[in-house]
């Protein structure tokens, strides 16, 4: 099987900068990033001893996906899972997380590939910034139930949900208040019309007119009968 031209370097990732700003084109660019350019298997066995850490390369390529404009939950899910895997790899490094002897000397370990000779804290900051570009609220709840996501991401997600519900509640309260004010105004208008003496006089005149009309119709009917006799 021939290697992917994106993975073997035949195609320059900078080409993704020229992708048209249409949803289909951007979706394809994001899939290229997540499936071919970002995964760590692309650099295993190719890094030098004092490399600065592949997380910096990921951070450089990440903006090519224009993730803040992404609305496709499937692609967002792939990117989310990739970042969660990177976060898990960092958590497995010695010092914090699982303390495994000899792990830091294993150049094939994903956490070592991410950090390299750089700062682990800086790697975590870069991953957190990339997490913040994703609209994680579009993902199913089951996908968010993972320990390998920065707590700030999920806290911000929950806070935004509460903020949305709070804004909706305020909107409903304002709408209810406006409806009650309009109902009170209409009730006052009806009460004013019912208490208006002119309305009562109009009803009396209407009744009198109807009575006179009935008497006239009766008289005409009697005259018609007499004329026929």
Catalogue the unreliable spans.
96-104
Distance between the termini: 116 Å
Radius of gyration: 38 Å
Number of DSSP helical runs: 8
Measured by DSSP, the beta-strand proportion falls in under 5%
Classify the secondary structure makeup into a structural class.
mainly alpha
Task: Give your account of this protein's structure.
- By secondary structure, the chain is mostly helical.
- It is 61% helix and 0% strand.
- The chain has helices spanning 23-37, 54-61, 73-91, 110-115, 120-131, 141-144, 151-194, 197-228.
- Helix 1 (23-37) runs parallel beside helix 3 and helix 3 (73-91) runs antiparallel to helix 5 (120-131).
- The termini are far apart.
- 19% of the residues are buried.
Mind sketching the topology for me?
Blueprint lengths: L22 H15 L16 H8 L11 H19 L18 H6 L4 H12 L9 H4 L6 H44 L2 H32 L1
Question: Any descriptors?
Answer:
mainly alpha; 8 helices; 0% strand; 229 residues
TL;DR of this structure?
The chain is 61% helix and 0% strand. The protein is an all-alpha fold and 229 residues long.
């Amino acid at each position: 099987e021939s290697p992917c031209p994106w993975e073997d370097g035949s195609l320059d990732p900078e080409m993704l900068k020229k992708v048209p700003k249409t949803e289909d084109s951007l979706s394809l660019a994001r899939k290229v990033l997540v499936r071919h350019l970002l995964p760590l298997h692309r650099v295993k066995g190719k890094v030098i001893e004092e490399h600065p850490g592949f997380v910096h390369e990921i951070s450089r390529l990440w903006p090519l996906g224009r993730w803040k404009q992404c609305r496709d939950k499937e692609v967002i899910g792939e990117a989310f899972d990739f970042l969660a895997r990177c976060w898990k790899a960092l958590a497995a490094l010695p010092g914090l997380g699982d303390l495994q002897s000899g792990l830091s000397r294993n150049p094939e370990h994903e956490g070592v590939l991410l950090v390299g000779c750089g700062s682990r804290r800086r790697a975590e900051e870069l991953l957190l910034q990339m997490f913040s570009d994703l609209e994680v609220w579009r993902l199913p709840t089951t996908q968010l139930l993972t320990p390998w996501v920065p707590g700030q991401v999920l806290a911000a997600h929950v806070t935004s949900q509460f903020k949305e519900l709070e804004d909706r509640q305020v909107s409903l309260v304002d709408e209810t208040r406006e409806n009650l004010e309009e109902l009170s105004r209409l009730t006052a208008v009806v009460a004013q019309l019912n208490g208006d003496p002119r309305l009562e006089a109009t009803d009396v005149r209407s009744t009198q007119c109807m009575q006179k009309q009935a008497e006239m119709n009766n008289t005409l009917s009697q005259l018609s009968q007499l004329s026929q006799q």
